[in-house]
């Protein structure tokens, strides 16, 4: 598995991140982390709202093994719905959440702390100052933004740069063949600001797992075939046919498509069992043919809309008759 630097930092992170929402037992989590590490992975992503995930990770990684991983968790969503002080991106919420996560994870620092969602009640300057204080205190090393609008991330990092504070280094967003809307604003923003992009739900909520490639597919806990649109059904069939032609499974092919994108993307794997993880990890060694990539591109393409379409239309006019090459 390849290593890349996280955003504009020197932190080396693996192509594939391991998500822990599906962790339910220490024994199964240990097996999955062992397999992930053996494959070259080094980023484990959790959150206080992922059930007992933080507690399980604390038990599995306790001791010297902790230093072999980039441990990421989040704050903003309420740890206690009855206590409004545990929700939001303000300073007190951050402190309460961070202290709780440190206890549960049995560590003295978080390598990567994500703002879990956009909090329109809290000024972005307060959030960035509180995060910077945590970095300067050594309890957080790097920060990232999850589920924030592009304008908010851009404003946050611009203000951080001007005030010599810690900027966001990464973006965590839903991205897959089934959901490409981040290509409109968020992905170009990440490219411009030099942010790494971590993609959650890389299988589109199991749509791209292979089980919905046939019309008689049974319902699962997350997806009912009766609720799928014709576009989603067609996409699942196209992926299945293309993956079969490549001699790989549907899920690894969907992950491999993300790894092939021109902008660096780190899919977050969300296995519930060691067997699922074993299958997903094969994506790191899967290279899809240009024909397959074109086929999947055509089946999943979305209209970018305004202003991207207007920019594309006016660029030839701006360039004039002579070809202009980017530097």
Automatic annotation (TrEMBL):
<dbReference type="InterPro" id="IPR050523">
    <property type="entry name" value="AKR_Detox_Biosynth"/>
</dbReference>
<dbReference type="Pfam" id="PF00248">
    <property type="entry name" value="Aldo_ket_red"/>
</dbReference>
<feature type="domain" description="NADP-dependent oxidoreductase">
    <location>
        <begin position="16"/>
        <end position="299"/>
    </location>
</feature>
<dbReference type="InterPro" id="IPR036812">
    <property type="entry name" value="NAD(P)_OxRdtase_dom_sf"/>
</dbReference>
<dbReference type="InterPro" id="IPR023210">
    <property type="entry name" value="NADP_OxRdtase_dom"/>
</dbReference>
<keyword id="KW-0560">Oxidoreductase</keyword>
<protein>
    <submittedName>
        <fullName>Aldo/keto reductase</fullName>
    </submittedName>
</protein>
């Amino acid at each position: 598995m390849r290593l890349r630097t996280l955003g504009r930092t020197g932190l080396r992170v693996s192509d594939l991140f391991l998500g822990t929402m599906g962790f339910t037992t220490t024994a199964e989590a240990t097996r999955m982390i062992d397999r992930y590490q053996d494959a070259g992975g080094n980023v484990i992503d959790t959150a206080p709202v992922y059930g007992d995930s933080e507690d399980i990770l604390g038990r599995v990684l306790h001791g010297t093994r902790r230093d072999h991983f980039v441990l990421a968790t989040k704050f903003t969503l309420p740890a206690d719905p009855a206590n409004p002080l545990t929700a939001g991106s303000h300073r007190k919420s951050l402190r309460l959440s961070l202290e709780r996560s440190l206890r549960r994870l049995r560590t003295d620092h978080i390598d990567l702390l994500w703002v879990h969602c956009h909090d329109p009640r809290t000024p972005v300057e307060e959030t960035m100052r509180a995060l910077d204080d945590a970095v300067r205190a050594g309890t957080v090393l790097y920060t990232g933004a999850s589920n924030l609008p592009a304008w908010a991330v851009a404003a946050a990092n611009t203000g951080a740069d001007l005030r010599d504070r810690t900027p966001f280094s990464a973006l965590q967003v839903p991205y897959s063949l089934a959901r490409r809307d981040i290509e409109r604003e968020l992905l170009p923003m990440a490219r411009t600001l030099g942010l790494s992009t971590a993609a959650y739900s890389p299988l589109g909520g199991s749509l791209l797992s292979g089980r919905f490639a046939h019309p008689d597919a049974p319902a699962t806990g997350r997806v009912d075939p009766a609720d799928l649109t014709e576009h989603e059904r067609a996409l699942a069939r196209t992926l299945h046919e293309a993956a079969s032609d490549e001699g790989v499974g549907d899920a690894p092919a969907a992950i491999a498509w993300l790894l092939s994108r021109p902008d660096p993307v780190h899919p977050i794997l969300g296995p519930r069992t060691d067997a699922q993880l074993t299958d997903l990890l094969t994506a790191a060694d899967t290279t899809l043919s240009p024909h397959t990539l074109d086929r999947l591109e055509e089946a999943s393409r979305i209209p970018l809309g305004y202003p991207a379409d207007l920019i594309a239309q006016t660029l030839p006019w701006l360039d004039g008759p002579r070809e202009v090459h980017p530097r």
